[in-house]
């Protein structure tokens, strides 16, 4: 509870002096201890739009006064490992690896989605399936997860089954990983899987960007609200670089270019966030381990 | 029925039929070949795809990553316009690992449970167990072609890739080829048909002309039938040449026959005339003697004198006529000399002058010939006077007299009205004349003389020129 209070006070502080601080810090970009930032990206967002990434990278480079490299890997685990070993200076990861690797990771920024740093996991089925209303209706079917290190795409449905008294190992006839939320939607939309669990933010963004794909799926369940997949840094990242990055991200919504990028991301902005946001995921991890 | 159709239509028609038939055969062969080509292409494309995707699919099987395999199969599924091939990746136990059409072939499903097509496919793959070579099969029932390809990983089989094609890959390719071949065949036939008609007509036309001439021969006189055109040396050309030759021979024969008829008639006429003349001459001589005797010794009175005188004039006229009919070329002491010929010219000159006809006289004789002068002179006079009479006013008569190759040749030509066919047949008969004056014995006499001197006379009358040509042998063999 203590951490939560601290987070609130820090956030209040930021909210109070946000604009002035951001302007002040823009000028201190030269304070970075490195001329290159390696930032890991995972499919917690729609990571397949190259042009958007280029624009975002350019924006970050301008803000940081340093070269920015985006690093993408097929699995969350690879990015997580790179952060743990400080081969990345920052990464956008899921809350699940964050809570499991908290001793190595420092919370940099949490996206604001629909005004809050929270999101839900969606249970989706093909739009042709009119019968399924909850995950337990999918017994003996084929289920698609996104990534074994994803909260919304793996942890949440597992825990939901455990809480329903089911054994997730044997509940489905077959499960497989699609390695990204977008592909989970595709696997369900095309009938390869009878159901899937997906990041609600990604599904909503897809519905905006690729309505024909999302339209082939139907959301039958929404989870509790979890802390949004955060940006983290290795604990070893120098404070100056951390502050530079954090201030740049949290001030994105304050300038037109940043706002434009945020609009592309379907986000409202970034806040420094608080580790307490991820308590829901921590409870899920405990439920999984206890099972 | 067809055998009654003219060659004019039959030959080009048959050529056209042959061209159309050839076009159809070529089209059929091309279409048949294209089916094989499509099959081969399909197989090779599929094997190529299988080889390209083998590593990815083997890995995804090895790491149990169906999503990766699915993405590969989806890519193959719609990689070209092959209408959409359905790809199945089967596990070694024969179940579906993943397919490009998961609604129809869901993950983990057994093929046998997937309808008749799955059933047939399962049997095909079971039969193939243990083999790794790719094969092209046709699925029973649906007739859909499928390529079965083993996914190999370091020498062992990880799974089986089945690419099922819609039957339309064949039908579409076949339709495409049929359309193309039909079009080009049609164009070729359309181009060749007029050529066929032209060539056919060219071939047949000489034959048709020959047939028309043959037909004419049945209806018209030989000399009125047109000769066939000979413009080649092939069978038709030979035929035309033979036909023309036959026409010539026929014409010659007909002419000969006409001459024979004419000369036989003249001969018969001559015998009759001679016989009658002798029969008349005998009593005539007696009658004339009786009149002489009566003049000398008989009583005289006016009536009797007038009667006797009338009888005598009548009998003299009969004797003149009869002696004119009885032409006799008696052997004479002297032969024909150049001067005799010139005499004739002098004799006919007044008649020629009277009609204003120019006489060209070519006397090519240089010495006396062994032909009797008197009958030849008479003949020459007759012919020349005839020619002068027949020539137009102010016309021309050409006389040429020459001794060549043991013959005396007399040729007299004149312009003016030609002798008609009808006149020609009776030309030499006595009392035949086209003129108002004269009794018409001139040509009769001429003919008798020529006959007695064992010569011949040839009359031609055409193109405004009439020609009498007399040939007399210079040494007459004494008739037996």
Write the layout of secondary structure elements.
The complex is a heterodimer of chains A (291) and B (480).
Chain A: H1 2-26, E1 36-41, H2 50-64, E2 67-72, H3 76-84, E3 90-92, H4 95-100, E4 105-112, E5 118-126, E6 142-145, H5 151-163, H6 168-171, E7 174-177, H7 181-189, E8 195-199, H8 200-209, H9 211-214, E9 217-227, E10 231-234, H10 239-250, H11 256-265, E11 269-271, H12 279-290
Parallel strand pairs in A: 1-2, 1-3, 6-7, 6-8
Antiparallel strand pairs in A: 3-10, 4-10, 4-11, 5-8, 5-9
Chain B: H1 7-62, H2 66-77, E1 86-90, E2 96-99, H3 115-128, E3 135-138, E4 145-153, E5 156-164, H4 168-219, H5 235-297, H6 302-325, E6 335-336, H7 338-355, E7 358-363, E8 369-372, H8 373-390, E9 396-404, E10 407-415, H9 421-425, H10 442-452, E11 456-462, E12 465-473
Task: Provide the descriptors you would attach to this structure in a database record.
heterodimer; A: about 290 residues; alpha/beta; D-Maltodextrin-Binding Protein, domain 2; 2 domains; five-stranded mixed β-sheet; 11 strands; globular; disordered N terminus; B: about 475 residues; alpha+beta; Beta-Lactamase; Heat Shock Protein 90; 3 domains; five-stranded antiparallel β-sheet; 10 helices; about 15% strand
Written account of the structure:
- The complex is a heterodimer of chains A (291) and B (480).
- Chain A has helices at 2-26, 50-64, 76-84, 95-100, 151-163, 168-171, 181-189, 200-209, 211-214, 239-250, 256-265, 279-290; strands at residues 36-41, 67-72, 90-92, 105-112, 118-126, 142-145, 174-177, 195-199, 217-227, 231-234, 269-271.
- Chain A has 291 residues and is an alpha/beta fold.
- In chain A, the strands form 2 sheets. Chain A has a 6-stranded mixed β-sheet, with helices on both faces.
- In chain A, helix 2 (50-64) runs antiparallel to helix 11 and helix 5 (151-163) crosses helix 12 (279-290).
- The longest helix of chain A is centred in the first third of the chain and has 25 residues, at 2-26.
- Chain A is globular, with a radius of gyration of 19 Å.
- Chain B has 3 domains: 2-173, PAS domain (Beta-Lactamase, 2-Layer Sandwich); 256-324; 330-473, Histidine kinase-like ATPase, C-terminal domain (Heat Shock Protein 90), CATH 3.30.565.10.
- Chain B is 57% helix and 16% strand.
- Chain B has helices at residues 7-62, 66-77, 115-128, 168-219, 235-297, 302-325, 338-355, 373-390, 421-425, 442-452; strands spanning 86-90, 96-99, 135-138, 145-153, 156-164, 335-336, 358-363, 369-372, 396-404, 407-415, 456-462, 465-473.
- In chain B, the strands form 3 sheets. A 5-stranded antiparallel β-sheet of chain B has the order 2-1-5-4-3. Chain B has a 5-stranded mixed β-sheet with strand order 7-9-10-12-11, with helices on one face. Chain B has a two-stranded antiparallel ribbon with strand order 6-8.
């Amino acid at each position: 509870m203590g951490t939560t209070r601290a987070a609130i006070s820090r956030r209040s502080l930021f909210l109070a002096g946000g604009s002035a601080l951001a302007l002040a810090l823009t000028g201190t970009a030269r304070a970075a201890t490195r001329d290159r930032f390696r930032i890991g990206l995972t499919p917690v967002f729609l990571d397949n739009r190259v042009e958007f990434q280029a624009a975002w990278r350019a924006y970050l480079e301008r803000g940081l006064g340093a070269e920015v490299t985006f690093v993408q890997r097929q699995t969350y685990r690879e990015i997580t490992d790179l952060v743990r070993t400080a081969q990345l200076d920052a990464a956008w990861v899921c809350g699940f690896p964050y809570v499991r690797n908290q001793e190595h990771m420092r919370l940099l920024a949490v996206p604001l989605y629909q005004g809050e740093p929270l999101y839900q996991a969606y249970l989706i089925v093909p739009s042709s399936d009119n019968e399924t209303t909850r995950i337990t209706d999918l017994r003996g079917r084929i289920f698609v997860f996104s990534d074994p290190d994803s909260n919304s795409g793996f942890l949440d449905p597992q825990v939901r089954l455990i809480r329903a008294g089911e054994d997730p190992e044997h509940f489905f006839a077959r499960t497989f990983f699609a390695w990204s939320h977008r592909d989970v939607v595709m696997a369900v939309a095309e009938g390869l899987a009878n159901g899937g669990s997906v990041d609600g933010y990604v599904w909503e963004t897809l519905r905006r960007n690729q309505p024909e794909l999302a339209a082939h799926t139907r959301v039958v369940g929404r989870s509790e609200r979890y802390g949004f997949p955060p940006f983290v840094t290795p604990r070893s990242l120098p404070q100056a670089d951390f502050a530079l990055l954090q201030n740049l991200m949290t001030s994105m919504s304050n300038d037109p270019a940043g706002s434009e990028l945020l609009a592309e991301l379907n986000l409202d902005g970034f806040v420094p966030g608080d580790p307490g946001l991820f308590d829901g995921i921590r409870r899920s991890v405990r439920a999984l381990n206890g099972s | 029925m067809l055998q009654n159709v003219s060659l004019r239509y039959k030959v080009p028609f048959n050529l056209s039929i042959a061209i159309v038939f050839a076009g159809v055969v070529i089209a059929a062969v091309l279409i048949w070949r294209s089916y094989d080509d499509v099959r081969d292409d399909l197989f090779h494309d599929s094997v190529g795809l299988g080889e390209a995707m083998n590593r990815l699919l083997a890995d995804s099987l090895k790491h149990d990553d169906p999503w990766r395999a699915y993405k590969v199969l989806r890519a193959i599924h719609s990689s070209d316009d092959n209408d959409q091939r359905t790809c199945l990746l089967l596990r070694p136990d024969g179940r579906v690992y993943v397919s490009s059409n998961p609604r129809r072939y869901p993950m983990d499903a057994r093929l046998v449970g997937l309808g008749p097509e799955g059933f047939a496919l399962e049997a095909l793959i079971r039969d193939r167990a243990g083999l790794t070579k790719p094969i092209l099969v046709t699925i029973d029932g649906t007739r859909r072609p499928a390529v079965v390809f083993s996914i190999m990983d370091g020498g062992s089989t990880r799974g089986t890739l089945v690419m099922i094609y819609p039957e339309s890959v064949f039908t579409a390719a076949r339709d495409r080829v049929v359309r193309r071949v039909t079009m080009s065949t049609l164009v070729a036939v359309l181009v060749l048909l007029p050529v066929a008609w032209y060539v056919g007509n060219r071939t047949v036309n000489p034959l048709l002309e020959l047939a028309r001439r043959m037909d004419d021969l049945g209806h018209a006189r030989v000399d009125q039938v047109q000769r066939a055109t000979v413009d080649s040396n092939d069978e038709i050309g030979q035929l035309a040449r033979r036909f023309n030759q036959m026409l010539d021979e026929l014409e010659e024969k007909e002419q000969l026959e006409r001459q024979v008829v004419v000369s036989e008639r003249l001969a018969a006429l001559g015998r009759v005339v001679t016989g009658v003349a002798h029969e008349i001459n005998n009593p005539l001589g007696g009658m004339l003697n009786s009149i002489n005797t009566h003049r000398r010794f008989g009583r005289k009175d006016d009536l009797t004198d007038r009667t006797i005188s009338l009888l005598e004039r009548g009998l003299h006229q009969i004797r003149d006529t009869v002696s004119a009919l009885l032409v006799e070329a008696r052997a004479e002491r002297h032969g024909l000399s150049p001067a005799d010929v010139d005499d004739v010219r002098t004799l006919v000159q007044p008649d020629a002058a009277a009609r204003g006809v120019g006489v060209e006289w070519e006397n090519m004789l240089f010495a006396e010939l062994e032909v009797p002068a008197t009958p030849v002179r008479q003949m020459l006079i007759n012919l020349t006077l005839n020619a002068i009479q027949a020539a137009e006013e102010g016309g021309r008569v050409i006389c040429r007299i020459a001794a060549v190759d043991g013959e005396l040749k007399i040729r007299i030509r004149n312009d003016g009205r030609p002798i008609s066919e009808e006149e020609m047949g009776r030309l030499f008969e006595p009392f035949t004349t086209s003129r108002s004056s004269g009794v018409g014995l001139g040509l009769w006499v001429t003919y008798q003389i020529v006959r007695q001197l064992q010569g011949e006379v040839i009359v031609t009358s055409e193109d405004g020129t009439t020609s009498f040509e007399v040939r007399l042998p210079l040494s007459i063999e004494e008739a037996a």
